[in-house]
Write a structure and sequence with these properties.
144 residues, mainly alpha, 0% strand, 6 helices
């Protein structure tokens, strides 16, 4: 993924970090809404999942290697599947969370050019991440 210009990178990272608690709450809703996981996740679990996602986003914004992203996918997917999440549940929850996150963060950015750039970058980045996680879940679960 192409490197985002430096000032815009800081704005986007700062906006996401400033919303950390809301992002944790949003991830909890996305993972539990209509999904009955075997072992309910506690707030600390949601916090760790969100912190990992923020770290993955920051890595992407900085144009660095995808080490954090790979580690995140390889550890989070099995953990959630062990708790009863299916590939479909993971995909739906992650798409819901990333769409809400993108919308909230983009609306906070100024000017309009930053908003357009943020939305395009976040949609592409999160789409790729969700696709990777869905694929990892299907490979682990023997699905399509």
């Amino acid at each position: 993924m192409a490197r985002v210009q430096e000032t815009y990178q800081r704005k986007l990272a700062n906006e996401m970090r400033s919303r950390r608690e809301r992002l944790i709450d949003g991830l909890k809703v996305a993972l539990t809404e209509g999904n009955k996981l075997k072992n309910e996740l506690v707030r600390e679990d949601h916090s760790q999942l969100t912190e990992g996602l923020l770290s993955v986003v920051e890595e992407g914004l900085q144009g660095r290697s995808a080490e954090r992203r790979t580690f995140y996918v390889e550890t989070v997917v099995p953990g959630l599947m062990d708790r009863g999440a299916t590939p479909e549940v993971l995909e739906r929850a992650l798409r819901q969370w990333t769409q809400r996150t993108t919308q909230e963060v983009v609306q906070a950015l100024e000017p309009a050019a930053d908003q357009r750039q943020a939305q395009a970058w976040m949609e592409a980045f999160f789409s790729g991440l969700v696709d990777e996680m869905r694929q990892a879940a299907r490979l682990r679960g023997g699905g399509k």
